[in-house]
Design brief:
Helices cover 55% and strands 0% of the residues. It is mainly α and 55 residues long.
Length: 55
């Protein structure tokens, strides 16, 4: 019986960098888009309110 003494090529815990996207990227982008839309809506509402009171 011959045993295979060659080391495995799949090494657990290697020091290679992890590549790819982070799972929270879509959540962060969604929150950012929501904040931008909300601030734009607020600016528009303030501008309309100031114009309505000035007339």
């Amino acid at each position: 019986m011959k045993s295979d003494s060659a080391p495995s090529t799949a090494v657990k815990g290697s020091d290679l960098a992890e590549t790819g996207t982070n799972d929270s990227t879509a959540v962060i982008a969604g929150v950012a888009a929501t904040l931008i839309a909300a601030s734009g809506g607020t600016a528009l509402a303030i501008r309309r309110r100031q114009t309505r009171h000035a007339a």
